[in-house]
Amino acid sequence: MKVLENLKNVSSKFVGFCQTNLLDLHVGESYASFALISDILKENVDIPELGTYLQEGNKAVRTTTIIGEMSEVIGQLLMVPMQHVNGGPCGGCPKENTYDPDDQAGPNMLIDGIVRHQVALPHGYNYIPISEHVPPATPARVYPFSLDPFQKVAIASIQRSESVLVSAHTSAGKTVVAEYAIAQALSANQRVIYTSPIKALSNQKYRELQEEFGDVGLLTGDVSINPSAGCLVMTTEILRSMLYRGSEILREVSWVIFDEIHYMRDKARGVVWEETLILLPHQVHYAFLSATIPNAMEFAEWVCTIHEQPCHVVYTDYRPTPLQHYIFPNGASGIYMVVDEKGVFREDNFQAALADMPKDNEKESSDRKSRKTKKNGREITDGPPDIYRIVKMIMQRNYNPVIIFAFGKKECELLALQMSQLDLNDDNEHQLVDQIFTNAINGLNEDDKQLPQIEHILPLLHRGIGIHHSGLLPLLKEVIEILFQEGLIKVLFATETFAMGLNMPAKTVVFSQVSKWDGKNLRYLTSGEYIQMSGRAGRRGLDERGIVIMMAHDKVEPSVMKNMIMGDADPLISAFHLKYNMILNMTRLEGMSPEHMLRNSFYQFQNTTSLPNLEVEYKCLEEERDCIVIPNEEVVSEYYELRQQLEIHSRDMRDVLNHPVYSVQFLHVGRLVRIEMDGTDFGWGAVVSVSRAKVLNVKKDGKDSRRTPKESLRSTDFVIDVLLNCDSSSIVAKNPDGTTTGVKPPREGEKGTPMVIPVLLTALNGISTVRVFSPKDITSLEARREMYRNLQEVLERFDNNVPLLDPVLDMGIKDAGFAKLMERIETLESRLINNPLNKSPRLTELYELYSRKMTIQQKLRALRKKIQFAHSLIQQDELKSRKRVLRRLGYLTSADVVDIKGRVACEINAGDELVLTELLMNRFFNDMSPELTAAVMSCFVVEVGELDPGSLREEFAAPYRVIKETATRIAEITVECKLQIDITEYISKFHCDLMEVVYLWTQGAKFYQICQKTDIFEGSIIRHFRNLEEALRSMVSAAKCIGNTQLESKFSEALTKIRRDIVFAASLYL
Questions:
Q1: What is the pTM of this model?
Q2: CA distances from 993 to 184, 837, 947, 948, 1013 (A)
Q3: From its record, what is one biological process in GO terms (predicted)?
């Protein structure tokens, strides 16, 4: 406690000096700036050595010796009472049993920007502060370098055998913590498990740890190396499978390390982490490694709750290598620093970057002949000469190696091909690339060595240029990773998956775009995505700073860019969802139940912990509502209800007016129409053309329906191209139906840009009797401006009151129902006019006041539902429905005992467990050959289907029909059991695209031959084959479960037939 005493006995000169002289100093690679230190040590520290330096006032000394000295002192201070125990209780733990340093150890020392330490404690735990921790005389592992503060605190937690979550930026040094946990377990003759989210990362981590510790094994399903080792590297799915099967290995495990735990938010696979964590025994301790997550303490509290053990949080925003962020505007002459290494946003530079963009981002200058290609319904620019110029600039300034992120496999390759004139390697490096590449492909047969992808990529690699995306052959991806690590690739074009876990930093990161297609819309990158990818910039110990460059092809709002660069990382949100396999496994396990899984899920925890905030919010809204006093509220209420009814009926009338039968005949070129999309009024525009929408209408229940001629047309069947005045910064994204999202009207006071925007008929909010002249070709900006000038002249002539088509006289709507609707609207309008409030001078004020009160009332109703939801066991109703499905199908008895079909489904971890079990039990596979069996099983692992089933040969079409019929029967039972499901979507998830490809492969076809049968990338084909292998292994276990040796042999033979050549080539890391 001597340091605490020193904190109290200090001189005021220290802080004064820091605040007046050192606020502008930048520490570089030291732990903190003096400004931050002065903020931390508000009580001042009397340390003679530092005082001497500070009083000298010599800038050279201050910027060199003092910074190093201060860094050491701060590092030491972090080992005194720096812990901050979360103010809220852990789960249901009472506040008084949560350690608080304010109560026992003086000031609460929370060091922002360096390290934040918190700990979640179970009820009644006898916690000893980190400051009183005595390290072992002989540490389990000694490092040849000084540890960072966060590493020291995390390792101290491990030495105390207490779980820890380390949340830090990429390349901050989290691996050091994992290595210490491994060393401590091995030194105590205990086993340790290291899990990673993907097989590729497991392979790479196995190689690293095997070189470091020796006694390391690997389990990834298709690979098993040294399974009796003290340290086992595996995917999280393998660990979950071991837990469900009660593996004996787990009895000897003392530590489990979860790498990249932030991937628990993944919608598809995140649930695996939750299942695994809930199932692990309480005596196991955990080291969680994560990117920065703002709600790290919430996760630690959940772990503390379910395992009744402390869980520390060591959080740091500190980057060993600070980042500088630049913008390279489309077609600009240079780059602009928008955020410096101190994290300061440069507004003036940002505005200069915007000003340097072409005024019309659709116009291409004469010297920039960029070819455009369609991707996901949007247009992308291949890049030259921008991408070429920026790479040349990077090489000239020695900013390489550089990773250039592109958001799409094809886009990634197109950008790389623009570098054909650059050779970034010398002759010696050319030879090294040849040597490494030749050694890597030596294990392939001659046919595979001549694959186009292998032959075409070597010239790029020679020149120091690489490509990395999921469509590449796994072998090639690993070669490229090795070449990049060896410095033989100077420029790497990669998709965002490269940022997932692989420890391969560069000096510079370039974003080819700041927006991406997410499967539904074109949107800006989130701050979390940006942080994850930009974190690859800056190599610790090699670079003074990392460089991040954004190629901005669109004008971006300053607030959007600021949030992207300086916003928080994405929080860790549970992706927990129920699956039949989980329900059956949990029912089968002794002492477990699906309800146990629900109660202990992070999903349930997050909703329960939100309860106090919800109740506070509810009380505040109640008070706000009660404070609204409205005179003659009954009259105002009546007026409000009339207005609401009128709006509903007006929308109904609009639906009729917009029906294709009545509207399309008037939508000639030049017709003025008023457009409203998503509640936003775009004002008047002019029709350019009308066409049918690109997507077909499919009934949700999958059943045939007969519609009348009038019903056969819908407002969603037609798309109108309309000339609208739009905000020039709009990001235009095309939807599958041909319409557009991301468009905004110009802001008040701004001129805007005329754009041709495709909209559905439903966006019409008025059809005028007026038409304006339209040029024959409006592709040019000038032609669009001319047409818009004509439109504005018409609006000025009519003083913005453009005459509308009369529904009856002009449009000829004589439907009796429409006439009644019009009568109802007239009645409501009459009642509104006669309402006493209508003549009140306070009409607007009172109406808005009552509207506000009703809005609050709606929020209160929604909050009440949330509160009731948080009190209940979440997903309980879904669990009951799923159990009903399992009973109907014979997987569970009425007493919830797992029957034989249920035990079969427990074995199936890949593919749809219910459909596969039904097929297996109905002897669907009995008469099939192993080759056809493998082909049929491919329907359960292909993620996206584009092949028309009608083009299948009958030998494939017949079993595919049975799969669809089985899926339909299960879907109908599911609906009958009150489970929400889209039948059409469920049935359509079984794809036949690779049936023939797999069949040919099992018959001995060469890889290049099967590649010619599909448009799927080679790497994606191999990924599907490896998923197929996992599915076949599950079926082997399922057949063994029912004692059918013939089927077991058939699935095993199918497995053997697909496991050959380049499809299952061994990883270079093994």
A1: 0.73
A2: 50, 65, 5, 8, 10
A3: RNA catabolic process
